[in-house]
């Protein structure tokens, strides 16, 4: 595996030598490349990449340490560029809504986000149709695209093409690898399970009005975690808080806002994992499974990020999954 780099005008210059890459894609979406100053070769605006993969990014900052003789380049990975762009609704519209074939929508978003100098959408029909997808107001480009595709069981694929010098965006079906490949202790899957009962289960929502005239709505969490108007937890098991929303337009608005607030405050068990070595290529958005022999804990979860390390052309990858 070789790492190619360019100058600040994105003209190919060669391959990196005696270097170390630390790349986070899916979470921080950034990178750091370090090497001895005698091999210093990149500048602001340089890009680096591994042809045919998602591994790469653009240099934003350069730090030279004359004491250690090291230079470090940091910047945004490809997803990081999209993370610093905002999907806005059109003038006069509350939301941006899209319909159509997924790769065609990606092409529209590339133009809307003004990133056509670095990205292009695949011209192949993905076979994935988006129907009346409504983006959250002023979401980031990467969040909006990821959620749009996840809503139809798909994921975003990014591949750097040396021929075009652009990163090609494609919508592809997310794979469920949980049955084909079970990543047990042998593959270094680390599990953390947190059973939580300390969350709020009774939210008193306070709307407009003064004193006895004030609008008050009581919302509760039941045994299955559903929010409703019937109390389940009583006595010392009741955990209550108040929520003030004086700008609520009416009672229904107060109920909707209170329900969203209670969803964020209620108890929620958390199960997280880190996946180490694997013999297959796992991508962000794919589903994997794991099992711990000692406890019998078994789980499936979605791959959320990759931690990529490349040192002198040698690659290692670990994966983080969603909680």
Let me know the largest β-sheet.
13 strands, mixed
Task: Identify the CATH architecture of the largest domain.
Answer: 3-Layer(bab) Sandwich
Structural class: mainly beta
As an assembly, this protein is single chain
What do these coordinates show?
The protein is mainly β. The protein has four domains: 4-81, no CATH class; 85-173, Phage tail protein beta-alpha-beta fold (3-Layer(bab) Sandwich), CATH 3.55.50; 182-194 and 270-321, no CATH class; 202-265, no CATH class. The chain is 13% helix and 42% strand. The strands form five sheets. Strands 1, 2, 3, 4, 5, 6, 7, 15, 16, 21, 22, 23 and 24 form a 13-stranded mixed β-sheet that branches. A four-stranded mixed β-sheet has the order 19-18-17-20, with helices on one face. A three-stranded mixed β-sheet has the order 10-14-13. It starts with a strand and ends with a strand.
Structure in a nutshell:
With 323 residues, the protein is mainly beta. The chain is built from four helices and 24 strands. It has helices spanning 78-83, 102-113, 141-150, 251-265, and strands at residues 4-6, 12-15, 19-25, 30-36, 47-49, 56-65, 70-77, 86-87, 97-101, 119-121, 129-134, 139-140, 154-161, 166-173, 182-184, 190-194, 202-206, 216-221, 227-228, 240-244, 270-275, 287-291, 298-311, 314-321.
């Amino acid at each position: 595996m070789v790492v190619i780099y360019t100058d600040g005008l994105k003209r190919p210059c060669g391959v990196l030598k005696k270097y170390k890459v630390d790349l986070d894609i899916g979470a921080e979406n950034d990178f750091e490349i370090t090497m001895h100053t005698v091999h210093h070769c990149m500048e602001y605006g340089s890009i680096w990449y591994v042809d045919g993969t998602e591994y790469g990014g653009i240099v934003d900052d350069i730090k030279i340490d004359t004491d250690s003789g090291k230079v470090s380049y940091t910047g945004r990975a490809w997803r990081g560029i999209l993370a610093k762009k905002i999907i806005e609704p059109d003038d006069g519209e509350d939301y941006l809504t899209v319909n159509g074939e997924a790769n065609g929508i990606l092409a529209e978003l590339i133009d809307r986000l003004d990133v056509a100098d670095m990205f292009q959408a695949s011209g192949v029909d993905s076979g994935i149709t988006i129907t009346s997808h409504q983006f959250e107001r002023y979401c980031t480009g990467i969040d909006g695209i990821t959620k749009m595709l996840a809503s139809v069981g798909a994921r975003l694929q990014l591949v750097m093409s040396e021929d075009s010098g652009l990163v090609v965006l494609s919508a592809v079906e997310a794979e469920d690898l949980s049955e084909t490949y079970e990543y047990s202790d042998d593959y270094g899957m680390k599990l953390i399970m947190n059973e939580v009962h300390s969350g709020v289960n009774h939210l008193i929502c306070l709307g407009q009005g003064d004193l006895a005239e004030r609008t008050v709505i009581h919302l509760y969490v039941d045994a299955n975690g559903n929010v409703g108007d019937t109390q389940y937890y009583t006595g010392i098991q009741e955990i209550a808080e108040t929520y003030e929303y004086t700008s609520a337009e009416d009672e229904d608005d107060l109920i909707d806002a209170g329900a969203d607030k209670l969803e964020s405050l209620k108890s929620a068990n958390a199960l997280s994992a880190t996946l180490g070595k694997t013999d297959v290529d796992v991508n962000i958005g794919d589903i994997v499974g794991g099992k711990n022999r000692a406890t019998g804990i078994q789980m499936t979860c979605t791959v959320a990020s990759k931690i990529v390390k490349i040192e002198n052309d040698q690659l290692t990858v670990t994966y983080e999954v969603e909680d």
